[in-house]
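Input.
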Amino acid sequence: MFRGSAVATIDEKGRLKIPTDFRRALEDRFGPDFFVTSVSGEQALIYPLPIWEEIESRLSSLPATDRVKDRYLERVSYFGQQARLDAQGRLLVPPIVRSAAGMSGEVVVSARIDHLVVWNRERFERRLAEHPFTDDDFAKLTERGI
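Output.
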């Protein structure tokens, strides 16, 4: 389980240095292999490979004619690439994701329980300001028992 966020950088070769706390948890629990993708192109999604394989297993149980499944796979396949942590704890973010998400230099790596999300820091801060967490959002969480 991953918690919190950290500022990190993507170097000139497109490698993300995974923040230390996340790196330890990832390597200890899941190993060095990942699936890096996006659905919208706004951010990178970093799934430990065993977690991604569970998602693929659930997707494979859906009918081949399922349009939502097809649209989802179309996008994650377009943006996606399997990657491996190098000895320095860096992970290559696919060029197509970096380009679409405007990722170079400073980024925010944010935990999502079983995977990480990487945003261009400026875009992420703008998104937080433009989409505040409202009382209605709190009410919906309460309805869900959170």
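The first strand starts at residue 5 and ends at 10.
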